[in-house]
């Protein structure tokens, strides 16, 4: 399966960071389909296909910010990893925090990886390229049943 067949859910409340991810994916010709929600509660609705997300695809990868309104990323991660249908979806935490406590608690909650958001566009593109190269091109996922 190529990256063009992948579905990515970005859980991010910062319009600027959403724009950076979109621009980086476009500049790098990442062909995965990007879906965006602004908080953890919306992420759970997306995953459950509720309300306006009826018929939403199951993502192959979730990029999750920690500091979100309504339901923060930690609570969303805990809910995702406890759900029988969602627990296998890799969740990459993408946060501005480089706090050891945040890193450790994310792994305790079964995050697949923890990435500190770079502050400049070139470094941000490099992170998106690495995500595409590994998570969207190399990694095999279980069938979506």
Could you state the order of secondary-structure elements as H and E? EHEHEHEHEH
- Per CATH, the architecture is 3-Layer(aba) Sandwich
Q: Outline the biggest β-sheet.
A: 5 strands, parallel
Structural class: alpha/beta
Supply the number of helical segments.
5
Radius of gyration, taken over Cα atoms and rounded to an integer in Å? 14 Å
**Bulk shape:** globular
Uncertain residue ranges = none
Overall domain count: 1
Helix content estimate: 25-40%
First and last CA, distance: 16 Å
**Spatial arrangement of strands, main beta sheet:** 2-1-3-4-5
* Beta-strand percent range: 15-25%
CATH class: Alpha Beta
The CATH homologous superfamily is called Response regulator
> Average pLDDT across residues?
91
CATH fold topology:
Rossmann fold
Description:
β3 (61-64), α3 and β4 form a beta-alpha-beta unit. By secondary structure, the chain is an alpha/beta fold. It has helices spanning 15-27, 40-48, 73-82, 100-108, 121-136, and strands at residues 7-11, 33-37, 61-64, 91-95, 113-116. α2 runs parallel beside α3. It has a single domain (3-136), classed as 3-Layer(aba) Sandwich (Rossmann fold), CATH 3.40.50. It is globular. The protein has five helices and five strands; from the N terminus they run βαβαβαβαβα.
